[in-house]
Amino acid sequence: MSTAGIIAVVVGAVIVAALITVVARTASARRRTAHRSEAAELRQQAQAHTIQVKSARASADEKAARAKRAEAEAEEKAAQAKRDKTLAKQAANEAEHQSELARTHNDRARAIDPDVTETASMKPARWTKGPTKPLTREPSGHLE
Fold first, then answer.
1. How many CA atoms lie within 13 A of 96 on its CB side?
2. What share of the chain in percent tops pLDDT 70?
3. Residues 144, 136: Cα–Cα separation, whole Å
4. What is the pTM of this model?
5. What's the pLDDT at 140?
6. Fewer CB near the last or first residue (10 Å), C or N of the chain?
């Protein structure tokens, strides 16, 4: 082989090596571009998912807060009902005490009233719940 042939083979080999290098770099650049594009898409999906998660978490927190408020209101209502029940019992006890006191006064009044006969004073007092009319005297002298 002549010198020109050797130079042609070497130049051809250099050109083929250069072409292989250019093709390899171009392919590598395309892969990097594709990977960048895929990474950007994945970041976008991750960001959208993060927004959904934050929204769901905020919604759950809001529901928990509402439930806690409702529970506190229920506890307050239960406490108020208990106080009301206690007050009602106290009022009933006081009413019973006042009823007893009124019976005692009525019995004492009948006992010392000179216009009430012995048999009328022995009759038990009748008590009813609700409004009552005031005691009045019948023409016979008995209390009505």
1. 6
2. 81
3. 5
4. 0.46
5. 56
6. N
For the chain, where are the E strands, in sequence order? none
CA 83 to chain centre: 23
Distance (Å, whole) CA 32 – CA 26? 10
Quickly tell me which residue has 């970041």 as its tokens: 43
Identify the pLDDT of residue 83. 97
Q: Which among 133, 100, 99 has a CA at the least distance from the CA of 143?
A: 133
Asked if pLDDT for residue 32 goes beyond 60, the answer is: yes
Q: Cβ–Cβ contacts within 10 Å for residue 142, how many? A: 14
Q: Which amino acid is at 6?
A: I
Q: Is the pLDDT of residue 136 over 60?
A: no
Rounding to the nearest 10 degrees, give the CA dihedral for residues 22, 25, 26, 29.
-160
How many residues in total does the chain contain? 144
Q: Which residue has the higher pLDDT, 23 or 116?
A: 23
